[in-house]
Amino acid sequence: MKPIIVFGSINIDLVTQVPSLPTPGETRQGDNFFTAAGGKGANQAVAAALLGVPTQIIGRVGGDSFGRELLASLRAAGVQTQGVLVDEAVSSGVAVIAVDSRGENQIIIVSGANGRLEQQDIERLTAVLPDSAALLLQLEIPLPAVLAAAQAARRAGVLVILDPAPALPDIPQELYPLIDIITPNQVEAEQLSGFPVTGQETAALAASEFLNRGVSTAILKMGDQGVLCASDEETFFVPAFPVLAVDTVAAGDAFNGALAVALNQGRSLRQAVAWGAAAGALCVTKAGAQPSLPDWETFALFLQENNIDVNRTS
């Protein structure tokens, strides 16, 4: 199989578990604290690598202990890291996360090295694109870098999958036609499309807005309400898998990683969306970002239990 390339953020997550999330100005007593490797780019890379597809990440970490820890964690998961620059001038990216008893979260991100991605990073990306199956992008890195990466992938004829998270109000209109698949969650879809997303009908309206902007396929992830997928050829809905949510951090990243893996195996869009939904469901049953991402054996068993085709096609 051709490798999947991820261009994006690499963070250390500082996670506090708390009975309920604090309101502004309120102090809450937490139940537990731990650190975990994270960052939407790194999460997506690990999600794909754990499912057995060659995966490489292009990005930056700081010249600190967090950076060394993050690189070691990526390599342990099977992600190729030769495209990661160690930026001695700045700290690694950090995400401060609070998770409540229902699995809902609040996240504060300090970009650190992630905020310094520029032309030399695009050059490292461009060098590996011609032999790649897909490029996964997110918005935890500078928008000019995201746009340049999408342009490079388009020139190379590589599938572009964008998770528009965190949602930004100033996404350039010229980015949308470069996106083959966009995968916002419910909140991001509302912020970017201008349509309230409360169910399948409103999700379809938001998806139509993305298609009108030039995106080929819009996949709206609505948590326990399921997933709506729309393109010019078809619109369909995949129900959510019933699981007990512990922590929703990285669920969208698990979705995108499994989606890319399924497409890389030559599966249909419907099958790929089902794989993404299954990976996201498994992810929320465990705490932490990368620690919650399923390996192939766990994922295959879950697919079998839910009557989803699991046979490898390549």
- Tell me roughly what share of residues is in helical segments: 25-40%
Q: Treating each run of at least 4 consecutive H or I residues as one helix, how many helices?
A: 9
Secondary-structure element series: EEEHEHEEEHEHEEHHEEEHHH
**CATH uppermost class:** Alpha Beta
Structural class: alpha/beta
Please tell me the CATH architecture by its name: 3-Layer(aba) Sandwich
- The number of domains is 1
* CATH-defined fold name: UDP-N-acetylmuramoyl-L-alanine:D-glutamate ligase
Cα(first) to Cα(last) distance is 7 Å
What value does the average pLDDT take?
94
Q: So what's the oligomer here?
A: single chain
Q: Strand order within the widest sheet?
A: 5-4-1-8-9-10-11-12-13
Task: State the total count of DSSP E strands.
Answer: 13
Query: So, the CATH homologous superfamily?
Result: Ribokinase
Largest sheet features: 9 strands, mixed
The fraction of residues in strands falls at 15-25%
Shape: globular
The radius of gyration computed from the alpha-carbon positions, rounded to a whole number of angstroms, is: 18 Å
Unreliable residue runs = none
Secondary-structure topology with pairs:
Layout: E1 4-7, E2 11-17, E3 32-38, H1 40-50, E4 55-62, H2 65-76, E5 84-87, E6 93-99, E7 105-110, H3 119-128, E8 134-137, H4 143-156, E9 159-162, E10 181-182, H5 186-193, H6 200-212, E11 217-221, E12 227-231, E13 235-238, H7 251-264, H8 269-283, H9 296-305
Parallel strand pairs: 1-4, 1-8, 2-6, 4-5, 8-9, 9-10, 10-11
Antiparallel strand pairs: 2-3, 6-7, 11-12, 12-13
Helix pairs in contact: 1-7, 3-4, 5-6, 7-8
